[in-house]
Amino acid sequence: MKEWWLQVGLLGVPLLAVYLHIPPPQLSPALRSWKSSGSFFTYKDLNVFYRDSGGAVGSSDVVVLLHGFPTSSYDWSKIWEGLTQRFHRVIALDFLGFGFSDKPRPHGYSIFEQATIVEGLLRHLGLRHQRINLLSHDYGDTVAQELLH
User: Fold this and answer.
1) Calpha distance 133→20 (Å, rounded)
2) What angle do CA 40, 125, 42 make, to 5 degrees?
3) Per-residue pLDDT tens digits for 54-78
4) Which of 46, 71, 73, 110 has an alpha carbon 20 to 30 Å from 141's alpha carbon atom?
5) Mind listing the GO biological process terms from this record (predicted)?
C-alpha cells in the first residue's frame, strides 16, 4: 500500500508543477475586444478590470452588472448593447480572482471584499452618491445582497 501512495506522489508533484506553469491560452477576438474596451482601477495594489459605457441620452439611470461564478463581466456581452439603449451608463467589473482582474495567491477571497471592491469602483467613477441599479446573477446575487445590506 505504501508503494502505491509513493507512486502517486512521484507522479502528482511533477504534474502539478507543470500545470502551474502552463501559459494561458490566446484570447479570442471577442475577448480581446472586450478587454480593450475596458479599464482597470486599483484596489489595495490589485488591478480590477471594469467596463463603463455611456448609453441612452435623456436617461440618468446607471446600472452595475455583477457576474456569476466562475465567469466574468463578459457574461453580459450579448445584452450590453441593449442595456446601453436603456441606461445612461452601464458598468460591469470582473470580481477579484475572475476574468481580467488580478488573481492573487494565496488570498482569502470573500463576498464582503467583493462588495467593498464594487463600492470602491463606484467611488473611483464618481458615483458614490448616485442612485444605482444592480443587475446580477449567481455569485453576483450574493455580492448584490451584501451591497444592499
Assistant:
1) 39
2) 35
3) 877 777 899 999 999 999 999 999 9
4) 46
5) acylglycerol catabolic process
CATH number at residue 53: 3.40.50.1820
Block residue for cell numbers 451591497 = 147
Nine-digit cell string for 114: 467583493
Cα separation, 33 vs 140, in Å, equals 23
- C-alpha neighbours within 13 Å on the C-beta side of residue 30: 6
Domain that holds residue 76: 27-148
Q: Which three cell numbers stand for residue 149?
A: 445590506
What are the pLDDT digits (tens) for 11-39? 777 777 777 777 878 999 999 999 999 99
131's grid cell = 442612485
